[in-house]
Amino acid sequence: MIHIVFNAADIDVLKKAIELDESLQGEVVQIKDDYAVGPIENIYVGEGIEARRQWWRDVLAGGDYDGSVDNGEVDDYKTVAELVGTMRRNPDEIIWVWAAQNKHDVSGYYWLLNYMAEFQGRVFILYLNNLPFINEKGLIFYPEWLHVIPPKEFLKAKKLARPITLSEFEVDPDEWKKLMQENKGVRILEGGKKLGHHGYDYYDADLKKFIGSDWQKASKIINQFLSKNKQTTGDAYLLWRLKQLVASGEYDIQGEPKGMKEFEVKGKSAATAATEEQ
Fold first, then answer.
1. Which domains does the chain have, with CATH numbers?
2. pLDDT tens profile 120-172
3. Which residues contact 142 (CB under 8 A, 6 or more apart)?
């Protein structure tokens, strides 16, 4: 059995669940890229793959994750090639795909399906869509992320495992292909497995709400967004968007716009704004 997850934090909690139930024994593999953001046109061929990698290079340039595109840390195509090889060599091997109700997991699921079709009947989905679980305090909650589920609750979740149907292998890739053709920058989960498509500036309006009249480090602005905003995304993407807002001239900046702790941002003072208008 091979378990597939889409977040680093999911690995540890799933491994703890495996320790509690021998029937779950197997390797845990992570699909690492965030397919809820960035270009996805021609994402399964060389041109599209390189276009996406170049986009990530531009997004991460000079920031806290600069250089990570080319250090081999994230290579989902290598990961999936190894998965496919294992499945072909071992006809009794099965895959369990774990996904919670969030745009990151669902986007990753859609991307992965392209490589799993030949193993229909051996690939199972555990989609925790609007399902109640019990947290550490004994209270019922509806998790948006796998890693917030206590390990013992995964033993209940395993009962949800079902084969991805032939119909899903036909219909779901068509949904993903439509998004690939539109090739907008941000994907938002609208319910079930339905993804909405928006421009790269989708988060900008909400991000602006956390930029005040006093100097704040970029890290503080981003952390406030992540803790308070309804729709969130990765900190690297938010840092890129914040740099875009600053570059547009809307805000004052001090320090070098590189890492999150290396520069500060605030709204333009009335005096500054008046001077620029002259």
1. 2-178 (3.40.1360.10), 204-271 (1.10.10)
2. 999 999 988 877 888 888 888 888 888 888 888 878 788 888 999 999 999 99
3. 130, 131, 132, 133
